[in-house]
Design goal:
Layout: E1 2-7, H1 11-21, E2 27-33, H2 36-46, E3 50-54, H3 62-72, E4 77-82, H4 87-96, E5 100-103, H5 108-119, H6 127-138, H7 146-149, H8 153-163, H9 168-175, H10 179-193, H11 198-208
Parallel strand pairs: 1-2, 1-3, 3-4, 4-5
Helix pairs in contact: 2-3, 3-4, 8-10, 8-11, 9-10
């Protein structure tokens, strides 16, 4: 029996995942949590084999929760779950000790298989991705501002368009994304740059972009 803990701030998501997992006789959901803080405490109390952990949580990031859980329980497998692909979140998840990183669009059968595999000690991380992460560790970008270095290629492109004064709708038309998705990207960019407003992000870019980097 594989003991699973579900961590997501949406109760509907947790309920759906619980129903899907418990349809399998070898999987048991022993705990749920809606925040990173709850996740760390309940991992300590229930000691699940696998933690299915959302990357975005209301109090802290799922990556931070993963790091804390793995520090306390090195044998506990953590499977990161996210709504959209994010190179930086993937990088951070690997560095935090996650055994896998999957999108919420994954088929139910594939998620079940993934949980079984990480419970058995396997990794769901692509070897090529892991190799790129290790290369980043060995050769960090020394000429780039550390906050700008956190941005994924898509986020960097969106930041350029923010600096040009484009609206979310206009940006969405350029990068072929829904306006709501662009809004989510903008929120992530502001968080990574540690600023509160779009104008501050544009000013930060202007003041910290490497001189030899063209737009």
């Amino acid at each position: 029996m594989v003991r699973v803990m579900l961590v997501d701030d949406h109760e509907v998501v947790r309920t759906g995942l619980r129903g899907m997992l418990e349809a399998h006789e070898d999987l048991e959901v022993v705990a749920e949590a809606g925040t990173a803080g709850e996740a760390v405490l309940r991992a300590r109390s229930y000691k699940p084999d696998v933690v299915v952990l959302d990357v975005r949580l209301p109090d802290r990031s799922g990556v931070e929760a993963c790091r804390d859980i793995r520090a306390e329980h090195p044998d506990m497998a953590v499977l990161m779950l996210t709504s959209f692909s994010d190179d930086q979140a993937l990088f951070d998840s690997i560095m935090a000790g996650a055994a896998g990183y999957v999108l919420k669009q994954i088929r139910g059968s594939d998620l079940v298989d993934g949980i079984r595999r990480v419970a058995a000690g396997e990794s769901l991380l692509d070897p090529g991705v892991t190799a790129r992460v290790l290369e980043r560790v060995r050769n960090p970008k020394s000429d780039e501002d550390p906050r700008l270095a956190r941005l994924t290629p898509t986020e960097a492109r969106i930041l350029d368009m923010i600096a040009e004064g484009l609206t979310n709708r206009q940006i969405g038309e350029h990068v072929h994304l829904a306006e709501k998705t662009v809004k989510n990207y903008v929120s992530t960019i502001l968080s990574k740059l540690q600023v509160a407003r779009r104008a501050e992000a544009a000013a930060y870019l202007a003041g910290h972009r490497p001189q030899d980097k063209s737009r």
